[in-house]
Amino acid sequence: QVQLVESGGGLVQPGGSLRLSCAASGSISDIYKRGWYRQAPGKQRELVATLTSGASTNYADSVKGRFTISRDNAKNTVYLQMNSLKPEDTAVYYCNVRRLTPPYDYWGQGTQVTVSS
What we know:
Elements: E1 4-7, E2 10-12, E3 18-24, E4 31-39, E5 46-52, E6 57-59, E7 67-72, E8 77-82, E9 91-99, E10 104-107, E11 111-115
């Protein structure tokens, strides 16, 4: 069974950086989009960044210019580079892979990112 395993979360000071990784344990065919979502305490899950199979990207306005989504096909891994972190970035971050046919969403287990001094 395919699983998405996340790593790289932790505690970081404001202005610091973290790199999240999402590795698939198996092959997923017909991938439409790869992405990262986050959910802060008391808030709904929100889109952070997406990467299509055509390599186009989309970012939430709140992270644009600070976060970068990328992938390494050889390692079957998606990354989220987070720079200039702010306290409001504190949340549980979830990796997502969307399959096109038939439609299906794979989710990582979530990794905690805490930005605090």
